[in-house]
Amino acid sequence: xxxxxxxxAADGSQVARKRIVVGVGxxxxxxxxxxxxxxFTESGHSVRVIPTEAALQFVGRATFEALSGNPVQTGVFADxxxxxxxxxxxxxxxxxxxxxxxxxxxxAVAGRADDLLTATLLTARCPVVFAPAMHTEMWEHAxxxxxxxxxxxxxxxxxxxASGRLTGKDTGAGRMPEPEEIFTLASLLLERPAALPxxxxxxxxxxxxxxxxxxLDPVRFLxxxxxxxxxxxxxxxxxxxxxxxTLVAGATAELGDPAAVDVVHVRTAEQMREAVxxxxxxADAVIMSAAVADFRPATVATSKIKKGADEPDTIPLxxxxxxxAGLVQARRxxxxxxxxxxxxxxxxxxxATGGVLDHARTKLARKGCDLLVVNAVGDGKAFEVDHNDxxxxxxxxxxxxxxxxxxxxxxxxxxxxxxxxxVFE
Length: 425
Ligand SMILES: Cc1cc2nc3c(=O)[nH]c(=O)nc-3n(C[C@H](O)[C@H](O)[C@H](O)COP(=O)(O)O)c2cc1C
Prior knowledge:
Blueprint (H helix, E strand, L loop, with lengths): L5 E3 L5 E3 L2 E6 L5 H13 L3 E6 L9 H8 L15 H8 L2 E7 L1 H9 L5 H8 L4 E5 L3 H5 L1 H12 L3 E2 L3 E4 L5 E5 L3 H13 L12 E6 L4 E2 L5 E2 L6 H12 L3 E6 L11 E5 L3 H11 L5 E4 L6 E3 L19 E3 L3 H11 L7 E8 L7 H12 L3 E6 L10 E8 L4 E8 H15 L4
Parallel strand pairs: 3-4, 3-5, 5-6, 6-7, 10-13, 10-15, 13-14, 15-18, 18-19
Antiparallel strand pairs: 1-2, 8-9, 11-12, 16-17, 19-20, 20-21
Bound molecules: flavin mononucleotide.
The site of flavin mononucleotide has 17 residues, from helix 4.
């Protein structure tokens, strides 16, 4: 079988088989690269792992060979008749270095080619992703800062690391994002190679995601089916495009916090409104992808409502404040800057009175936001799944369809439109 033919992923779906090089630097996070390799092979891709000699201090060659199903070498003098030191880079569709150590990035910047991985970096013409992992002091050192900036200037993608537990008892910025997150970003680049420009540096963006839960008593709530995946994808990508992002997260499908994003966890619509209103001050854009309950129970019982004589026949509801309308009003009042871009989401179904887009256009006019992201829901679409499609409706009358793809792809289209809305001095 040719490497370019479709292949079956572990879930049975057909994928275009790509050639992926996973480079592994000599850091403690090398163990996480095993999960990354597995995600690529399970998705049906052909994977070559190229560790450095130092990486093999952390994970054995046999592990990488077994997970990738391919031989593993570290030096330029292995596999000489096949000229592996140039061929692997030339043929790759994507190179992902995880972990990228301080030393490995310095060697990449210097253009060294004294092992198979750095030689591969010099010959690769496909997207190259570095996922740095190191102690905070190393990450913040002027040499590393310069190396990261240089790699980005040359067109490589250097993923923002997460903050959190480092080796030993230390915590701080420099932690490698979880393999699943690196896989998500890398997969997006296979869908859309130009999806991660650094065009949002210096921007502050607030994103809401997930569903709200309106309590009825200590054990019951009114909720909805939003998984939060679309909003998390937007927050993750905005941070990786350089923005300072606050994610106001309601109930989700147990999603991990995206790397380099400040996450504020809330439960109810009122908590979400308060958090959004607090963080939107000074923001350049606010993207309301959360599924916020329109109503909440008028009273919350302090103890569980029991079956029997006291059981209510009906549950009175009261309307929650509309956060999107509140944001538009706050911009009119001057509570938030007039330049703040406001983006709403509409999950619509067609009915006897009109199609999805008809309802969405009415909603855009009613809400007064700058951009409405429209999803057709129902029939297994949009909620809980990993793919999406839809439309972008602008207040200026522009309309564009977003092609079907991953929620990351949709996030990248939304952020392109948001970048166009923000005022750049
Ligand atoms: C236990 C241990 C953990 C290490 N973890 C890291 C790390 O997370 N990040 C880093 O940049 N260097 C780390 N280092 C230092 C690198 O191993 C060292 O700089 C090495 O030369 C990197 O080689 P490379 O260029 O092949 O990645 C660690 C060293 C040791 C002994």
